[in-house]
Amino acid sequence: MLGYIALGLPCGILSAKAGMSLLQVALLSVILYSGSGQYMIPSMLMGGAGALTTALTVSMVNLRQLLYASALLPWLRPFGRARASVAASNITDESFGVNITRFEHGRWSSWQAFGVSCCSQATWIVACVAGAAIGSVLNIDTAIAGFAMTSIFTCLFLMQKLTRPALAAAAGAVLTVVAFKLLGLSNLAVFVGALAGVACGVAASHWRGRRMPNVPNGQIGDRSFLANDKLGTGHFWHSRKNAKNDLSPICPRRRKARR
Amino acid sequence: MSWTTFAIVLAITALCTVGARVLPVLLFGGKSLPPALKQALAYIPPAAFAALVASDLFKPENWQAGWVANLIPLAALIPVALVGRKTKSLWLCIIVGVACYAALKYLCLWLGIF
After folding, report:
1. According to the model, what pLDDT value does residue A79 have?
2. How far is the first Cα of chain A from the last one, in angstroms, to the nearest whole number?
3. Separation in Å, CA of A12 to nearest CA in chain B
4. Number of C-alpha atoms within 13 angstroms, CB side, residue A212?
5. pLDDT > 70? residue A223
6. Are the C-beta atoms of residues A247 and A181 closer than 8 Å to each other?
7. What three-state secondary structure class fits A233?
8. Is residue B17 located within the same domain as residue B53?
């Protein structure tokens, strides 16, 4: 919970800095409810990206939630489609970690899972709106506010499991962004850069799979986003019991070889 | 921010994000995502965050401001990266980043080289 406050306040301040009203910040945290997304929106808009490219880039980053929802599926299935969908509708990196640990330890209903997510979300909404209220009064240097977001993205990047293909993805993304900016296409740089990076990552893992068969099992996703280690997200990722749900990048070639 | 911009951003992002959360549940049949898709999804965060950082640091439009102005963010990023690597704590990174950036900026202003 403390983590949500510590990150929600600056998120609200930065959103206000990008010119969002209190109502807009509140709507974003109620409907979108995505920490990294809500940092990306003001950052990209302030950086001169258009509304459409911003929206598409944020959507792409949030596609990782597909992984969370499908990892929770085995536990949600018994509750029936309707209840399971409600429980899944506000999963985040952090509440996913809490819920999956609870499900693993036994009796945990979809309502309880939904409850955890709702409490987290309520804290997040209050923190964001409070931040926006502070931000609309406070006069912060735009460059400094921008650098707060750069710091967040740097940390989010370092939280990823930086396997070699992931580093190749990052390198591809950086080079593409630089190239696009030099060409004067700043508004598309981040979106195309991220796409090109993913392509580089996939290509690198195939190439790597052929040469080096031992791809270490890794963690992916920035699910520790908003983590203040109090919530104990670590368990799931290291337990052997869940090896079947391991979300690590699996190299198809290696799998075939094993069969 | 204008409500049109806001509406476009909110509608698209919310649709995709909530869709990504709920879709696997609605399509119960699919036991697990295909490995190739999982793999591609796994590379989205590192690629996207690297792209965002690169875009924040590499700004040709600021080059006329002089090399000092363009080096400050690069220099301030070093302590952020060290703290991020060590602690993986987002709020600590914000604090360190903002403090270092502000300190460097005002130091340069004070020294008159900016």
Report:
1. 78
2. 45
3. 14
4. 9
5. no
6. no
7. coil
8. no
Name the least confident of A91-100, A129-138, A244-253, B76-85: A244-253
Residue with token string 């490995």 = B35
Structure confidence at residue A125 (pLDDT): 93
Is pLDDT of A149 > 50? yes
Following DSSP, what letter does each residue of A55-71 receive, concatenated? HHHHHHHHTTHHHHHHH
Tell whether B9 and B60 lie within a shared domain: no
Shortest distance between the Cα of A136 and any Cα of chain B, in A, equals: 13
When scoring B3, B31, B32, B49 by the number of chain A Cβ atoms within 10 A, the one with the most, hence best to mutate, is B49
CA B30 to each of CA A144, A176, B23, B27, B34: distance values in angstroms, whole numbers, following the listed order? 46, 35, 10, 6, 9
Distance in Å from the first CA to the final CA of chain B:
31
Report the distance separating Cα B6 and Cα A62, nearest Å.
Answer: 18
Q: Say whether pLDDT at A96 is over 80.
A: no
Q: Which residues of chain B have pLDDT under 70?
A: 28-32, 114
Residues in chain B: 114
Q: What is the span of the domain harbouring residue B62?
A: 32-111
Residues of chain A found within 8 Å of residue B28, distances taken between Cβ atoms: 73, 77, 81
CA–CA separation, A78 vs B19, rounded Å? Answer: 21
Q: How many domains does chain A have?
A: 1
